[in-house]
Amino acid sequence: MLMRNLPRAPSASNERVGRNEAQEPRRARKKGDGATLDYHQALSKSILYFEAQRSGRLPASQRANWRGDSALKDGADAGVDLVGGYYDSGDNVKFGFPMAFTMTMLAWSAVEFRTQLSGKNELSNAQAAIKWGSDYLLKSHAAPQVLYVQVGDGSSDHSCWQRPEDMTTPRNSSKISDMKPGSDVAGETSAALAASSIVFRDSDRNYANKLLIHAKQLFEFGRKHVGLYSDSIQEARGFYPSSGYDDELLWAAVWLHRATGEETYLDFLFKSSTTGGRRTLFSWDDKFVGVQTFISKLILEGKVGEGGIWGEYKKAFDEFVCSVIQKGNGSNVEMSPGGMLWWQPWNNLQYTTAAMLVLASHSDHLAASSATLQCPRASVSPQDLISFVKSQVDYILGANPKHMSYMVGFGQEYPGHVHHRAASIVSIKKDRTQVTCNGGFESWFNRDAPNPNVIDGAVVGGPDAVDHYTDSRSNYEQAEPATVTTAPLVGVLARLA
């Protein structure tokens, strides 16, 4: 489903899971009236969610066993193997731009909180989720200056309601090249592969090196052939359009520097014509905050100075963090009456989870340097940041005015009518009868009953600015989950668990 974004700001567990029948949700207790939120369980479910989003031939280790093999001929139209990867949200299209961001967020989660993931016996599951995506991105990078960035047609897909296992919509493959550039998606894919290389460096050196080779090639491709991918790929324009590419190239440089230590990437960051200035959010389309996070880390570690452009990156970052935690200079991020950060109506929680990964990481960066954050309204300690992160995660998991978890399968009450094709139609393992394009709407989308499959770990778009939520499949702005929403939450939950 289309994931609208806000305009850019100007510069200035291992058990096998087979849950096929949804139960009517029961009221969950709000944290503070006797219940304790189980972050470990939420962490396990957040990683499990990615198994429900898998495209391709499923492995024997598949735990979300209501899903089946799907899209086994992807890439055939172009003579390449594009089987695998992830569906981005509640539809059956593989959109490369948000998929790459999803992989960067998953990899960041594993890089930053590897110890915590390992301590909760979830590192191997997280690595499996990352490798499912990084394997696909490697396939997509078919040549140094060729990157396949989409499989499927959004318009026809959104006109049908079918399980991915029996979809009949076109599976067209779209690519960028030297003649049809896409610096943004090339940069984000480079960042995803560079970050993933760090994840596998200790366990599979050869694989990590392969990821790094492709990451470097994609960075150079994006630098030398400049342009927006959504200008080159018409099929992407109406669904995940890009508003710029400077941030993705800087984002790639940050991760390549972290993966290699090579000064050339630091030089690229130093010579940039923009630091992004103060941003209003961090998302699949705007990576400046992520860049600023890691440059602030370098400053804290004494690896770069605080003057010049480095100081500009840090100043903008500090302003963003202060505005998120409500201690800025008056232009803080809006909050709902119930205490939820509010950006916009369409999948608002994607911005919350991304920002919370930033805050959780920065808290540890500050703590490692025995430093604090100076905001206009207060001096903020690392623990203050974690406390704020916890408040937002608790809201998502049920400590909110509706006493409802917005993570599916977590707690006693959670959305049952999730806007998700696979979850809303009986599992092909139970009934192999073909679900037709229109028949899916008639038999499944329009049903009043909860979805037959519980898509554990999916985080829906969330409530509106005054904490209202309508549990309806037709309410795609609030009821549709997406990989970009859950991916950063993996790291945050690891930190809290």
TrEMBL record:
- List the biased-composition ranges (Basic and acidic residues): 16-26
Q: Which residues form the active site?
A: H419
Q: Is Hydrolase one of the keywords?
A: yes
Q: Where is this region: Disordered?
A: 1-35, 159-181
Key word Hydrolase present: yes
Q: What is its EC number?
A: 3.2.1.4
**Entry protein name:** Endoglucanase
User: What organism does the record attribute this protein to?
Assistant: Dioscorea zingiberensis
